[in-house]
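[step 3/7] fold_predict: job queued, chain A
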Amino acid sequence: MKLTETQIQELYKFTRKHYVEHYDVQTELVDHLANDIEQIWIEKPNLTFEQARDKSFKKFGIFGFMDVVEKKQWQMTKKYLKLVFKFIKEWFGLPKIVLTMVLFYGFYQLQKMEYAYYLYIGIFVTLMILQFLFMIVKGQKLKRKQKETGKIWMFEQIISVNGMANVFVMLFYFFDFPFTSSKDFLMMGDFKKFLSAFLITFVIILGHITLVVIPKKANQLLLETYPEFKMV
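[step 4/7] structure written:
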């Protein structure tokens, strides 16, 4: 016995009821549940749809769908990080490598100036604020879209919101100044000056990629991941 379209829609409601908000994950779970329910009916045809559904759901264990959601989250996050690394690699090719070297040399020389420390801090804080504001705006936009269409894809949310947060959380620990004051900054040795110039250059490039480059390509990236996205 095959599930009806009404029963399929009931399974979508069932996944949402169990805290699965992303349409792509819902679809994977609905496909799995539907196939399993049909198999259960072959073995026990007298079960109702609800009884077969609950029997199938119990197979996911005490945490329900959460393990599936977490695995999908990690899968999509890795996909996003690969995109970031891809664009970083492209950035270090001609002609952008020239701009990168100019930025690096400029920041290296800048460290000899009295106000350099504050400029470095200012750039980093500005990027963090921009990222934070961008996350708020995009987050609200996604909520409106979900309310209007009832659909939101996990990779879409990662590109728009979560992905940048993940990158900057890692960067926060990586970008740890080896000094505590402007005076210490000016007294750094050549190696620390080289390192700090490299890090601030990298921060600017990464900020541009996560805030500008990837969001501009969002629709293309989502279509490559979800062919059905074009129907939204």
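[step 5/7] annotate
The mean pLDDT is 82.
DSSP finds ten helices and no strands in the chain.
exit 0
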